[in-house]
Amino acid sequence: MFSVLYFLLPIFACVALLANIFYLIVVSVGLRRGKLPLKRYALTINRSCADIFTILVGAYFYMKQKMDRCDGHICLPVETDVSRYVLQVVFVLNYWCVSLSYSGIAVLTNYAVRAPLQYKVNLTSIKVAKYILLGWLTMVFCFLLCVLLVHKGELDYNSNSVIHMFLDDFDDSDENLADWLVDLCIHIKSHPGTRSLIVTILPPIFFYLISVVSYIFIIQLLFSRRKVSSYHRHWGSMLRLGIHLILFAGTCLLTGTAYLGSFSIGDFCEPTFSSMTTCFGERFSTVCDIA
């Protein structure tokens, strides 16, 4: 099971990378030809760029882990702590960026439907770019605030189980798998994932609620003015926004699944932690039957 996931991880990453690059190419062509408005697609461009950067960072550590030398029992990166810190920062900020981008699209669509003239005149592409920059600065500040206040200055807080997939090398052999589970349980035991779940999931849930509320308000407005011909053109925007909400929900589901992976491993570690600690001193002993 682990080896299958480890094999599929780079394949999914390559598919996501190609999809984001293809999307940026299509949008760039549309912007050059004047078919697409920049201020409406700036947030999705921001999201795609963040996704590409995250994929490249993950690929770097994945390849680095593959090429690192093995220690006495299992292959681990030389700079495990630093790698864990960097990956957690990139993964969490990318997740927040996706959430903020989708909610921003919903708010902009709401603004365009309710006040089309003000949207066209007052909201320029430069202002949208400034809002995106301000959003990034706010996200970084909030992330540091969460680390200092919630996690007491400790950055390594077991972001989710995907981190372990990137940084821990293992195979199907019982010996290596048991040793890997020992190390993983010790790490999860000292860095519980409950706090990180709350800190990382709550902001996207808040932004998702903003998106849903904006979507409901727009539907109500369009339905109440459905006889006005000038409002008919906004139904295309509503369709795109609905697709964004579905993708947003899928992103939340995938991230939640990653956290559930950490908790299921944590539940496994809790009753057997004492025996695993004993096995930690006897890594190659056959009595350590953990797998």
TrEMBL record:
Transmembrane segments: 6-31, 43-63, 85-111, 131-151, 205-224, 245-266
Record carries keyword Membrane: yes
Coiled coil: none
Keywords: Membrane, Transmembrane, Transmembrane helix
Name of the protein in its database record: G-protein coupled receptors family 1 profile domain-containing protein
Organism: Caenorhabditis brenneri
